[in-house]
Amino acid sequence: MMTLPETPAGRLRWVVADTRTLTARALAHWARRPGEVVVGLLFPVMVVLMMGYLFGGQMDVPGGGNYRSFIIPGMFAMTMVFGVENTFTAIAADASKGVTDRFRSMPTSPSAVIAGRGAADLLHALAALAVMAACGLLIGWRAHDGAARALAGLGLLLLLRFALIWLGVYLGLIAKGPEAVVAVQVLVWPIGFLSSALVDPGTMPGWLGAIAEWNPMSATVTACRELFGDPGGAGGSWPARHSVLMAVAWPLLITAVFFPLAARRYRTMGR
User: Which family is this sequence assigned to (predicted)?
Assistant: First the structure.
């Protein structure tokens, strides 16, 4: 029987080693199902092309500018938000098949099980951002305010994805199975579209525009437009004027709520 490490340094090495192993497990699953991964990465590209070229001529950009450049930061953020479905499906599938119970019965670091999923999903998010950035560059999008601000914008996008990982993990652990992803879509899709990602909230009815302005995703979208120097970055509302602050605060709040819930749910499963 394996003896668990007793020193803090030993426990840290144990967590890191198990996290690396479980991250590699998730990546191996993707390698065996490349078609699903490719379709998932290309779906946002299809949305950009459809919105940018089919409907773009009918869209007004706040302050003027190219609509395709306006929606690219929005699609960056939507890709991060829709990633909740991938996290949920993977966690729920493991739980329904007994894989999670098997991990809990083994001398595996409990935090590594969740951290491994999170690390794999962040790598997937990086790949999605790379695909979206390439698509944006091909249709004329540019980051106009320098590499440092562009990297800061990408960092905010990954921070949003990091926070939503724990939401996906928690929902996956309380779900009855991966088929419950429909319920997650009912939650995620309104968040994605009721935002500033594709349209200016100022064009919505007042109450609906206010909801869109305070949407956590809108904070990230507006902050990225400001950091990239893209159209639509400025706004008169309080959330728009403090978009970078809100783009940090919202993910921290989501993490503070759902990370402990996910960890507690993992520890108490089966009781």
Answer: Belongs to the ABC-2 integral membrane protein family.
Task: Looking at the chain, list the stretches that DSSP marks H as alpha helix, in order from N- to C-terminal side.
Answer: 8-32, 34-49, 67-96, 99-105, 110-138, 147-174, 181-193, 206-214, 216-228, 238-241, 243-268
- pLDDT, one tens digit per residue, over 114-158 is 888 888 999 999 999 998 899 888 888 888 888 899 999 999 999
- Number of other CB atoms surrounding residue 81 within 10 Å: 22
Shortest CA distance to 215 belongs to which of 143, 150, 160, 154? 160
Task: Tell me: pLDDT of 204 over 70.
Answer: yes
94 to 81, 91, 104, 110: CA distances (angstroms): 21, 5, 12, 15
Least confident window among 9-13, 97-101, 205-209: 9-13
Tokens linked to 108: 């595996």
- CA torsion, ordered 204, 218, 130, 112, to nearest 10 deg: -140
Per-domain residue ranges for the chain?
Answer: 37-54+63-268
Pairwise CA distance, residues 134 & 139, whole Å: 9
Name the phi and psi angles at 173, rounded to 5: -75, -25
Q: What is the pTM of this model?
A: 0.89
One-letter identity of residue 230 = D
Identify whether the C-beta of residue 184 lies closer than 8 Å to the C-beta of residue 84: yes
Is pLDDT above 50 for 159?
yes
